[in-house]
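Need the bound structure for fe (ii) ion, inputs here:
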Amino acid sequence: MKMTLRWFGSLHDTVTLEQIRQIPGCVGVITTLYGSKPGEVWSREAIRAMKEEVEAAGLELSGIESVNIHDDIKIGISTREQYIANYIETLENLGKEGIDLVCYNFMPVFDWTRSELAKERPDGSTVLSYDQELVDKIDPDKMFEEMEANSGGFILPGWEPDRLARIKELFQMYKEVDEEKLFQNLVYFLKAIMPTCEKYGMKMAIHMDDPAWPVFELPRIVNNKENIQRLLDAVPIMNNGLTLCTGSLGSNPQNDIPDMIRSFKGRIHFGHVRNLIHLAPGKFDEAAHLSSDGSLDMYEIMKAFYDIGMTGPIRPDHGRMIWGEKAIPGYGLNDRALGATYLNGLWEAIEKTSKK
Ligand SMILES: O=C(O)[C@@H](O)[C@@H](O)[C@H](O)[C@H](O)CO
Ligand SMILES: [Fe+2]
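Answer from helper R.:
Posting the output first, comments after.
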């Protein structure tokens, strides 16, 4: 396991590489070419500049989160061919620059969804939260505005303003796309890119749907053990792998996360570890990483990662906003640093007791 932190680049992030390097045991960052649009080709020069900046700060560029997928690929219309060709070119350029991990998601229209971005907890910290009843009251067309209004002026990852322009049109286009069609479109995409991935040793790591059920009647297909296993079996090579996100899977209490980690051994290339509290069906608050602060057992989760011989990057996922920090919701320095330290502590204890 390699402990890493997500970083949004010096233009967008309040957190600096220098700060990240001072988190004990944090060896790298997971980043992206922020500002690039889904479907664009990433140039080698831009990739190299991003990598050099990270390395100059004494860190490793451990992977990309995300190279976003153009909606035409998810919808499966003929224009997908050009976007797939562009994606392949980006993968080649990343591979040539020595990057071998790409996180992505296959959620229609929206990336992760929350009803509140700064819900106050009893200790005064604020967290992201989800309440299906509140989301049901939101007009999907207005969802971008809702999120933007609550983001404290920051651009939210996955909620870049340019997606907004096509929202009405997109909802219309997804009318024809049910779960099966979305799944087939994902398999089509993966089969097309796999030869390039094999050539460069590129590990594709799909992020789980968040939350793990359909939102605004849009289909969701990466949300439980059965669906994920089906995806791994449909393209049964190592390069078709997962970003195992405990907070996304954990939104549904039916998901047994340690069991899933063990079952997907060999195919988990990247781990997102965070905790949440189940309040009612379809309702949860994000929490501190500490097991006792939420509903997930972080010891069992880290133990499962240890038992499968996880060598890839793990990062603390969304943190709470604490100590007056102002940052991208979920991505402040303070609580993610506490999270990294706690997860490193669990790992050390698991490692030492396992060797006895
Ligand atoms: O923190 C997360 O993991 C999520 O907030 C996503 O934005 C995630 O980065 C994407 O779904 C991956 O493509
Ligand atoms: Fe995640």
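Comments: The CA atoms of residues 140 and 216 lie 7 Å apart. The first helix runs from residue 17 to 21.
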